[in-house]
Specification:
The complex is a heterodimer of chains A (267) and B (313). With 267 residues, chain A is α/β, with parallel strands linked by helices. Helices cover 30% and strands 25% of the residues of chain A. Chain A has a single domain, classed as Rossmann fold (3-Layer(aba) Sandwich), CATH 3.40.50.300. In chain A, α4 packs across α5.
Chain lengths: 267, 313
Amino acid sequence: MTPLLEAHRLSVLAGEKWACKELNLSICKGERWGILGVNGIGKTSLLHALCGIREIQSGQIRLKGRPIAEMKRRETARIAGLLFQDSEDHFPSTVLETALIGRHPHIPPWQRESPVDEKIALEALSAVGLAGTEQRLANTLSGGERRRLALATLLVQDPELYLLDEPTNHLDLRHQIEVLDLLANRSAEKALVMVLHDPNLAERYCDRILMLLEAGQTMQGAKEDILNESSLSRLYDCPIASIQGPHGRIFFADQTAPASGLKAGCL
Amino acid sequence: MKSGKKLLLALTLVAAASMTLALMSGSVKIGWQAIAGSGLDHELLLHLRLPRAVNAFTTGALLALAGTLMQVLLRNPLADPYVLGISGGAAVAALCAMLLGLESTGTSIGAFLGAMLSMLLVFGLSGFERYSRLLLTGIVIASGWGALITLILAVAPEGELRGMLFWLMGNLDNSSPPYPGLIALILGLMLSLPLSRDLNILARGNLVASSLGVPVNRLQFSIYLICALLTSVAVMTAGSIGFVGLIVPHGLRRLGGHDHRILLPGAALLGGSLLLLADTLARTVVAPQQLPAGAIMALIGVPLFLYLLRRKP
């Protein structure tokens, strides 16, 4: 089976530092990838490069076997969709109008949105728990609601490869789980690539991990092989221990001592 | 979708009413029958009032359309058609033409060329790589033009000064032919309306648009060119009339026009109507004295916009 996305000797610059150098990556349907790395290492730049909206320095990216550089943007957008770290809204638009823009790559240039498109948008809104807010202005929503609206827009876009930049930003604990469950439940027919800051979410929701280390080096593999105390301690340059939790799950926590002002009783 | 159509219908009615009012108002009372007749009234209506009304309408429409496009291009609700120095370039060239003693046609052509030159200059210096740079380059170039305008006014002979100031304030009194404006307006709508859906997405940022399949660079370049054309023709027809290009898109967004398929034609209709009303007032309030339409435009626009701001969306 042709992988959904292949990167061949891919090098991407993030500002003046290499996000990755000579990276080979192959992402297939049904896989759930987690990308981990410290702040500023280039996770977002890599994600943007993977769907062709950021220039790459060398190498090649293929979507379903075709070089992304030769594809039209609309075709690319039907295969790979991106959830941005933050959403901009400079001008007012309603929640429904915002969700509907996800249909853009599916609607021929000269047509307008049909009732079917609207139905798809309404379903996505209700899937992320925003039913009933359709006619509200998007900029009146809370941070977490806007995050879910951005996710709904991506669900409406319905790509085969979901590239998610910190999908749990702004979300409370319950909504983090709900949103990632929702995505995981759809992942049999799709592939997920998510940039995460919480190794515990990576442990719970990903089956493959890509770690971005310093100077463009990377480390990748199955979760079981990659996600452990020593690799995470090296990645975050901070001692990390694993703890056995309920349902046999493993949790990672930092081992540093609390700051002196935060000792028990001081608060 | 339905409310959008209602909005457009209402704006069409407003435009028709403003046009009627403009044609019926003036120091001489003219009845409808004059259209078919052949006397002096007929001449007055068809050869004086109609061209001027058409000029006022198209200038307002061009500026409002250009303002709407410019706001999306720069993703900045404070942008107007002049923000990238277009009116400054046009003004410097027009004032130079006046200094050289050229008549109104020469001045108009000078203004057009100056606007185009300024657009090319700003684009050549910044490109679209970072739109914050585009905006800042435009603002700086505009300030440069402003300084040149002041210098020209300082050295201009007394006799020219009044004409120059009137040009700068925006003036529909120079009886330019209505065709350039009409053609530019029709062309502008024909070129920009098919881009509406892409514009809706571009309004959310370059990267978002790009990830949804919008060819961002090509789109931005098209908008830029269309804006340049619309604004240059508007400036050529009536000098630099402010306010309409900034306020009309805002007003329409407050009235619920979020979709550019409604916003673009809506802006043309509302901008045209507002400037037409302003010009009708400007030439009738203290007739036979004529006031600068640009100033009246702002006087109508300020309370209208403040009302729209306070009104619950």
